[in-house]
Each structure stands twice: as C-alpha cells, then as structure tokens.
Amino acid sequence: MAADYYPNNNTDLHLGEPVKWYLSVTDNMGSVQLVSIRVKIRNRAIKPPDDHQALELPAPVVTEFM
To answer: Among 38, 39, 48, 43, which Cα is nearest to 13's?
Structure first.
C-alpha cells in the first residue's frame, strides 16, 4: 500500500496536483511467477479491498504492468 506517502503528509490531494510514488515488487514465491500489477487509486467514497474475502478494490485501473 502507498499509505503515508503523501505530499507534506497531507492525504487530501487536489485534481491536477502532481504526486510521485515509487513502488517495488518482490517475488517471495521461490520461483519465477507471471504476475499482473494493477495500480488503482481510491477515495473515501470507494470501499477498501477485502483481503479476507479476496475481493479487489472496486475502482478503475489507472495503469497495469505485465
């Protein structure tokens, strides 16, 4: 998660405000894996993902890496 990585530690972002986040992914599976990384951004109106029920975040995909 990209929590706590906001400009000036302020979670309120404004439309058109540039923000840079640097993400890394580590494979701890013990072998090469085919993955798809989907980047999504949610606001307070969108429910967070549910890890216990394996439900993904119901928000549009901003970008995807294969």
So the answer is: 43
